[in-house]
Amino acid sequence: MLEVQQLSHSFPSGTESTQVLSGIDFRVERGEMVALLGSSGSGKSTLLNLMAGLMKPTEGSILIAGRSIDKMSENELAVFRRTHIGFIFQAYELIPHLTVRENVELPLVFQGLRSKVRREKAIELLTRVGLAGKTEMFPSQLSGGQQQRVSIARSLITEPAVVFADEPTGNLDTKTEAEIIDLLIELNENSGITFVIVTHEHEVAKRTKRIIQLRDGYLVEGGAAEALADVTAAEAEPLTEVRP
Ligand code: ADP
Ligand code: MG
């Protein structure tokens, strides 16, 4: 479904360039739900934006559903993104003057679907994310958690191959965070959509079946258990030195 091969990325800084990702290699199977865990500045958002085709990598390639998105032209990529990739942002990024339903319909407007079909699909998805009674409200009339539900519905309306979420619970309290993660897990289990969720919180990462951990732009090797042991060790009290 998703394959990242020898991916490296640098940003220009003055006359030099700063490398923020180095030799990243991994794959995500169809229907998997994966957490991309790492502390602030470790390169999570850069990696997510590269995988979602929002930027081109300096080196390496990214395959989604068997296609190299880094080799596509701008136009090809724009169409591919709209049809095969969903994105959920930390700050929801809803359009304030459109209703909840219109926000969710928007990706289908670009696909030229008739308004009746769009409306039906949007209402069906909004019902699925628990917002059946809110379809004609505006985003500002909803709580943060409800706005993120709208954004989740919008990310799914094109039936994408993969949905990327960048710190989707970063603006929410702990209780709402748990509810949003519950919803993402439920959608993953019942729809088979592949999710990659960026987070810096291991409490969130632990809820997924697999963790990919980044540290200073490098992938930390090992599965979920190892990544968590690592986080726990980093948080533990420093060991006092024992002399023989
Ligand atoms: P994370 O999401 O894990 O916090 P980022 O991917 O946002 O990390 O950033 C990784 C590193 O890349 C940081 O050192 C950040 O300052 C740098 N960086 C991110 N975006 C840019 C950019 N557009 N230009 C220059 N440096 C950037
Ligand atoms: Mg980030």
UniProtKB/TrEMBL annotation:
Signal peptide: none annotated. GO terms for cellular component: membrane protein complex; plasma membrane. InterPro entries: AAA+_ATPase, ABC_transporter-like_ATP-bd, ABC_transporter-like_CS, ABC_transpr_LolD-like, MacB-like_ATP-bd, P-loop_NTPase. PROSITE patterns: ABC_TRANSPORTER_1 (PS00211), ABC_TRANSPORTER_2 (PS50893). Pfam families: ABC_tran. GO terms for molecular function: ATP binding; ATP hydrolysis activity; transmembrane transporter activity. It comes from the Bacteria. Keywords: ATP-binding, Nucleotide-binding, Transport. Residues 2-241 form the ABC transporter domain. The keyword Transcription regulation does not apply. The keyword Transport applies. This is ABC transporter ATP-binding protein.
